[in-house]
Amino acid sequence: MRIEQPAEMTHAAMLGLGVHRPERVVTNDEICEVLDSTDEWIQTRSGIRTRRFAGEDETLIGMSVSAARKALAAAGVDAAQLGCVIVATSTHPEHTPASAPQVANALGSTAAAFDVSAGCAGFCHALNLASAMVRSGAEQHVLVVGVEQLSRFMDPTDRGTAFIFADGAGAVVVGAADEDGIGPAAWGSDGSQAHVITQTPSCLGGHASGEGADHPVVQMEGTAVFRWAPFAMAEVAHEALKRAGVAIDDLDAFIPHQANLRITQTLARNIQLPESVAVATDVVDSGNTSAASVPLAMEAMLRKGEASVGDTALLIAFGAGLSYAGQVVTLPPLG
Ligand SMILES: CC(C)(COP(=O)(O)OP(=O)(O)OC[C@H]1O[C@@H](n2cnc3c(N)ncnc32)[C@H](O)[C@@H]1OP(=O)(O)O)[C@@H](O)C(=O)NCCC(=O)NCCS
């Protein structure tokens, strides 16, 4: 028996981008009301000046839907046209059911829908899946959402995490295009460092340390991340450029995961990024929003005029797992 498959490969690109930034802006001084730290220390070590925390009425699903609606509008695509919805997140409160079917339902879609758990690298993983689906002809339009509500999963007294992580959502619609707008991913993992970023306790129980930790909170060996990311990701950056056949001088923008401004700056140096390439610095205003950080940083660059629709950008994301993924993309229109 012969199994049929779509015969033609097509080109895939991001057709539209939308974000949801929570209303509430949280300053370092507010963080330091509970955390034993200072505004100056936080800015010097991480670059972060403010971040946003979701309010009572801003749920993970709600933020995803808000970002997705803007992405669909920018793409000129109706929710009914979606063939798949992928949500990258580490902070959906339940393992089951996944968040993506609820996001699809709220949008009025019955598309295939599932979550991706790849920590801060989740959005770039999901983008690679969506691109492959569209290029193969398996689906016409795929919605990719990166969303986090890390403020719910932090110990506000933990000096290693409380000032870093934050909330938000970003979404893109991936669909067929005249030219490829999403390059092949350079991706991989290093599970030997699984212990470096964890949720503690696991779902099997136990007790987390720290105030108010009656449910899992993120814990991180920050120095280990710092020793790894700016060096390992430099190789991934060059691999993504090579796979896409794009020279580093041809980049308009560099949009790495917004982990920490010092990691971004060290990584840019290690890549030997030309001065002409604009570098995303959304971490300064938004903190580290994990799987949401790359689409939020894309939006910030487009909104501020630091990059333009149609520009060529290198995305690199890395985090818990440890997992990483990077690809060269063409920047999409903003909703
Ligand atoms: C978390 C991070 C900012 C800590 O910075 P660091 O330079 O490694 O700091 P260290 O943990 O070595 O601590 C240095 C000093 O600051 C102190 N310190 C640590 N956290 C502090 C805080 N929040 N406020 C004030 N002082 C702090 C330490 O006690 C130590 O003091 P000492 O020198 O007197 O012993 C840094 O490791 C980092 O950004 N790592 C990457 C994290 C990240 O971005 N992860 C994203 C995951 S995707």
From TrEMBL:
Reaction catalysed by this enzyme: malonyl-[ACP] + acetyl-CoA + H(+) = 3-oxobutanoyl-[ACP] + CO2 + CoA
Region ACP-binding, residue ranges: 258-262
Cell compartments where the protein resides: Cytoplasm
Taxonomy, superkingdom: Bacteria
Domain Beta-ketoacyl-[acyl-carrier-protein] synthase III N-terminal residue range list: 114-191
Record-annotated Beta-ketoacyl-[acyl-carrier-protein] synthase III C-terminal domain positions: 241-330
Keywords associated with the record: Acyltransferase, Cytoplasm, Fatty acid biosynthesis, Fatty acid metabolism, Lipid biosynthesis, Lipid metabolism, Multifunctional enzyme, Transferase
Presence of the UniProt keyword Ribosomal protein in the record: no
Active site, per annotation: 120, 257, 288
Keyword match Cytoplasm: yes
Alphabetized GO MF terms: beta-ketoacyl-acyl-carrier-protein synthase III activity
EC code: 2.3.1.180
Alphabetized InterPro entries for the sequence: ACP_syn_III_C, ACP_syn_III_N, FabH, Thiolase-like
Pathway: Lipid metabolism; fatty acid biosynthesis
Pfam family, one: ACP_syn_III_C
Classification via PANTHER family: 3-OXOACYL-[ACYL-CARRIER-PROTEIN] SYNTHASE 3, BETA-KETOACYL-[ACYL-CARRIER-PROTEIN] SYNTHASE III
Family note: Belongs to the thiolase-like superfamily. FabH family.
Chain's role: Catalyzes the condensation reaction of fatty acid synthesis by the addition to an acyl acceptor of two carbons from malonyl-ACP. Catalyzes the first condensation reaction which initiates fatty acid synthesis and may therefore play a role in governing the total rate of fatty acid production. Possesses both acetoacetyl-ACP synthase and acetyl transacylase activities. Its substrate specificity determines the biosynthesis of branched-chain and/or straight-chain of fatty acids.
Subunit structure: Homodimer.
Comment on protein domains: The last Arg residue of the ACP-binding site is essential for the weak association between ACP/AcpP and FabH.
Protein name per UniProt: Beta-ketoacyl-[acyl-carrier-protein] synthase III
Name of the gene: fabH
